[in-house]
């Protein structure tokens, strides 16, 4: 990987020297089908690229980017260059450039099995081959020669030769003539958002029309596609409904017509990301097509992703950051706009609850890691860029924008965005460009706000302090702001403070609320003086700011007894999130958090919050509970989940959520026997349909505890002989409790590159089972011996999967922490991105040990 890196300084030098007028890219993908020669060499396709570009210093030298097994020819301004001399496997050296240049590169590029570049997938169900591209941040160079950086935008013309029975799509509209698919020239865009999708995809079409106030009419052809094997499950009508709702919403708010012609959406196999905002051809992971019954939280999440990617058409595609330092200029805005549009345009009116409970949990974790960084990050190179698609850039950035809307007002915020689009259309920007537009529309000095919120790292904690007078009313209510020593920045927070009391009927309801600005370490909320004494104070009511909520003693005691009585669903979600942060921070014993889930989760109305509570409770048990209490805690969780499963309304999504929760925590003989009877049909639960996906969910714990062997799993794969079934089977096979199984799984992932990215992910997921700590203990030493080699030899995506996924987090002992520190000490010169991944895993482990100590202390009380 180091030879494939590109530094920020190199990119700036090249951008100062070159400007690109256009690309012609010709791909021959007919080699995707057939046996590929069977000689062990990578399967390749022909890629011919013509780049027209200018150089403002004639005679200077530069380079083009290309990652390919071989280059057939290179021609610069009609002069043939020796590929052996100018191509080093990642770059093409360009000497003696003219003022105007034409570079032609004829190469054999490799199909990918890692989801990077041009990914080739063979459907085990019918043998059909499907292709798609995925480039962000810098993998277009695996498909065609280019200048791989976001600020060298250009128009593209693609042509593709493909098998006769295939259809091919790209960013622009395409036509087939004489066996060649030719696509309309794009607007000026960056390399990383160009795209090709090819294969026998199932394709559904529709259209969107919009008449603007001036009488002009916009027509956008719409399309949605998936593999033929998924077509029976593809609810394209719902996807296209959300698409039309989103286009209406963004046209209403952005005052800039969608600029990229058509709007196709492809749901593709073995995808590494959630989705990618290629203009005119958005790609999604096909898991957003649901093969079985799922809860509304899954549909809400899919709608959010559809709208997130659509927002990118303006934030990211029309206007693009100059370099990856300002990745937030597209990702933070898209993350915010996805939820903003979901609430404003679709049926998912509670999406801000999901944002507060799920997305911000991702941000809080990332912002407390040693690798935390400002929203505007210091991105030295492409490896840094790859790792910064994280909870800071997405969820914290979106949270900060939500705070900004509260700070400047929604109208000023949106008007600033409109000016930003019109001023910088088809160009590249930095932080100051957006702040300038927002400053104009809000009348506020945005520089101080940006310094506090965008250019510093860390998360503040806000805690209420309540003093009562002799009559039992609020004499003074203050909010105390704290910052960690590592990141001592105290920020301006626009917050709402809510006061809650129980009604005579027992409901816990809000009776007072004020908005205020918190600037100082201690801020008095004068407007609440004289209010009735609260039983609960919520210092970030309505989730206006980004902070960790803390509670005074009275409020915490109220939640421990009456959390389920809190009637406002957003306030309840915020309280759950705060309690989870306290558990992670070793301020609340894990067993107390699990006890709260067991006591109150059954009363949770929001299905997304409920599913998040299930995940948190399991994580608390696996990582934060004292080891000597884990078995007891697991039994309590299983009993509670089964109790709620049996009590849930038959056929409801809550019943389904509790069934999945029960399968996750089941470990005792009685629980496993029940799962087996449900699988075999010997027992049923009224209303619970055990469809194929739920069958695999039940099989995984059975495999992990030795109840379902290889024969059973093979039979299940025969029942579900699909790509999804294969992933499930591989995960279950790796989960079996056998030293030989673990050795085989390790070898398949670490010592071989035969598995695709999806099967690597499935194998890793099965390898590390919480009930098998003794079986995986021998791999701690092997992990640290292998990771530098893996990082060097494998693609960055697979390297990230291995380093993160196989870190011995389940070996939660001080000795593992010492081994991690020893590796970090001995490998100070390792790739910075690799060290970052290990440092993050170390921090999670250290946090787990602190939480376990807190829980153990509670056990002794």
Task: Write the topology of this structure.
Layout: H1 8-17, E1 18-28, E2 44-55, E3 62-65, E4 70-76, E5 79-81, H2 83-86, E6 91-94, E7 100-110, E8 117-122, E9 129-134, E10 156-161, E11 167-170, E12 174-177, E13 180-183, E14 196-199, E15 202-211, E16 217-226, H3 236-254, E17 263-268, E18 275-276, E19 281-285, H4 296-312, E20 320-321, H5 328-345, H6 351-367, H7 382-387, H8 392-408, H9 410-424, E21 428-429, H10 431-442, H11 446-453, E22 461-468, E23 474-482, E24 493-502, E25 508-518, E26 522-524, E27 536-538, E28 548-549, H12 553-562, H13 569-584, H14 590-600, H15 607-624, H16 630-647, H17 653-665, H18 669-680, H19 692-704, H20 710-719, H21 723-734, H22 739-751, H23 757-767, H24 773-776, H25 779-793, H26 796-805, H27 814-826, H28 832-860
Parallel strand pairs: 1-10, 16-17, 17-19, 20-21, 22-28
Antiparallel strand pairs: 1-2, 2-7, 3-6, 4-5, 4-7, 8-9, 9-14, 10-13, 11-14, 12-13, 15-16, 18-19, 22-23, 23-26, 24-25, 24-27
Helix pairs in contact: 3-4, 3-5, 4-5, 5-8, 6-8, 6-13, 8-9, 9-10, 13-15, 14-15, 15-16, 15-17, 16-17, 17-19, 18-19, 19-21, 20-21, 21-23, 22-23, 23-26, 25-26, 26-28, 27-28
Shape: globular
Q: How much strand content do the residues show?
A: 15-25%
Average pLDDT:
96
Low-pLDDT stretches are none
| Number of helical elements | 28
What's the arrangement of strands in the largest beta sheet? Answer: 5-4-7-2-1-10-13-12
Structural class: alpha+beta
User: Helical content, roughly?
Assistant: 40-55%
């Amino acid at each position: 990987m180091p030879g494939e890196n590109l530094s920020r300084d190199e990119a700036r030098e090249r951008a100062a020297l070159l400007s690109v007028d256009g690309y012609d890219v010709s791909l021959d993908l007919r080699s995707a089908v057939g046996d590929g020669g069977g000689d062990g060499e990578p399967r390749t396709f022909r890629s011919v690229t013509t780049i027209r570009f200018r150089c403002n210093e004639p005679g200077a030298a530069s380079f083009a980017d290309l990652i390919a097994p071989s280059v057939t020819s290179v021609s610069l301004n009609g002069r043939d260059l020796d590929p052996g001399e100018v191509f080093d496997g990642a770059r093409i050296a360009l000497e003696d450039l003219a003022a105007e240049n034409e570079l032609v590169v004829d190469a054999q590029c490799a199909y990918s099995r890692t989801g990077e570049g041009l990914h080739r997938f063979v459907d085990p169900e019918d043998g059909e081959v499907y292709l798609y591209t995925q480039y962000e941040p810098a993998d277009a160079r695996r498909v065609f020669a280019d200048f791989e950086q976001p600020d060298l935008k250009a128009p593209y013309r693609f042509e593709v030769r493909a098998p006769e029975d295939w259809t091919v799509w790209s960013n622009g509209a395409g036509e087939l003539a004489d066996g060649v698919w030719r696509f309309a020239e794009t607007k000026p865009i960056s390399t990383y958002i160009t795209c090709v999708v090819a294969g026998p995809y199932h394709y559904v079409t529709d259209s969107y029309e919009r008449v603007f106030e001036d009488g002009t009419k916009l027509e956008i052809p719409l399309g949605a596609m998936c593999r033929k094997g998924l077509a029976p499950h593809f609810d394209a009508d719902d996807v296209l409904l959300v698409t039309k709702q989103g286009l209406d919403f963004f046209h209403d708010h952005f005052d800039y017509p969608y600029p990229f012609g058509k709007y196709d959406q492809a749901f593709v196999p073995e995808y590494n990301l959630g989705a990618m905002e290629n203009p005119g051809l958005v790609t999604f992971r096909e898991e957003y097509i649901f093969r079985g019954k799922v809860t509304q939280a899954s549909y809400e999440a899919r709608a959010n992703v559809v709208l997130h990617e659509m927002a990118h058409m303006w934030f990211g595609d029309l206007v693009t950051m100059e370099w990856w330092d300002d990745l937030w200029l597209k990702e933070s805005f898209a993350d915010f706009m996805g939820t903003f549009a979901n609430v404003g345009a679709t049926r998912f009116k509670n999406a801000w609850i999901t944002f507060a409970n799920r997305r911000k949990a991702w941000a809080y974790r990332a912002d407390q890691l040693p690798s935390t960084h400002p929203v505007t990050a210091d991105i030295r190179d492409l490896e840094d860029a790859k790792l910064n698609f994280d909870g800071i850039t997405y969820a914290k950035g979106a949270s900060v924008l939500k705070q900004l809307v509260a700070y400047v007002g929604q109208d000023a915020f949106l008007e600033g965005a409109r000016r930003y689009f019109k001023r910088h259309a088809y160009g590249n920007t930095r932080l100051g460009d957006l702040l300038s537009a927002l400053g104009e529309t809000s009348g506020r000095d945005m520089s101080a706000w940006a310094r506090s919120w965008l250019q510093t790292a860390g998360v503040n904690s806000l805690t209420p302090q309540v003093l009562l007078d002799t009559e039992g009313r609020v004499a003074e209510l203050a909010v105390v702001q704290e910052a960690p020593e590592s990141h001592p920045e105290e920020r301006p927070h626009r917050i709402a403070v809510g006061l809650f009391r129980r009604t005579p009927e027992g409901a816990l309801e809000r009776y007072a609320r004020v908005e205020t600005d918190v600037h100082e370490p201690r801020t008095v909320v004068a407007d609440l003086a004289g209010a009735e004494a609260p039983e609960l104070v919520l210092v970030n009511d309505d989730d206006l700011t980004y902070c960790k909520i803390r509670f005074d003693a009275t409020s915490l005691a109220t939640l421990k007894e009456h959390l389920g009585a809190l009637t406002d669903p957003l306030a309840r979600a915020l309280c759950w999130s705060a309690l989870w942060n306290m558990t992670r921070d070793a301020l609340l014993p894990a067993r107390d958090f699990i006890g709260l889930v067991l006591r109150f989760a059954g009363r949770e109305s929001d299905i997304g919050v409920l599913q998040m509570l299930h995940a948190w409770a399991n994580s608390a048990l696996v990582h934060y509970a004292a080891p000597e209490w884990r078995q007891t805690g697991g039994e309590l969780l299983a009993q509670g989940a089964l109790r709620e499963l049996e009590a849930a309304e038959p056929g409801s999504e809550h019943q389904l959520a509790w069934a999945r929760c029960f399968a996750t925590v089941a470990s005792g003989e009685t629980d496993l026997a029940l799962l087996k009877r449900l699988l075999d049909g010997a027992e049923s639960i009224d209303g619970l349909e055990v469809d194929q996906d739920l069958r695999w969910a039940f099989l995984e714990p059975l495999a992990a505890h030795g109840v379902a062997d290889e024969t059973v799993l093979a039979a299940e794969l025969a029942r579900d002989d699909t790509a999804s079934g294969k992933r499930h089977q591989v995960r279950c096979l790796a989960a079996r409790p056998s030293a030989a199984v673990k050795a085989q799984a390790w070898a398949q992932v670490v010592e071989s590159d035969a598995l695709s990215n999806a099967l690597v992910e499935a194998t890793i997921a099965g390898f590390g089972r919480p009930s098998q700590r003794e079986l995986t203990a021998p791999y701690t030493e092997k992990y640290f011996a292998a990771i530098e080699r893996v990082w060097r030899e494998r693609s960055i995506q697979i390297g990230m999967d291995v380093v993160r996924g196989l870190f011995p987090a389940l070996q939660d002992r001080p000795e593992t922490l010492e081994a991690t520190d020893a590796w970090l000490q001995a490998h100070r010169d390792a790739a910075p991105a690799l060290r970052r991944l290990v440092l993050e895993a170390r921090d999670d482990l250290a946090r787990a040990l602190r939480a376990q100590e807190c829980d153990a202390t509670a056990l002794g009380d």
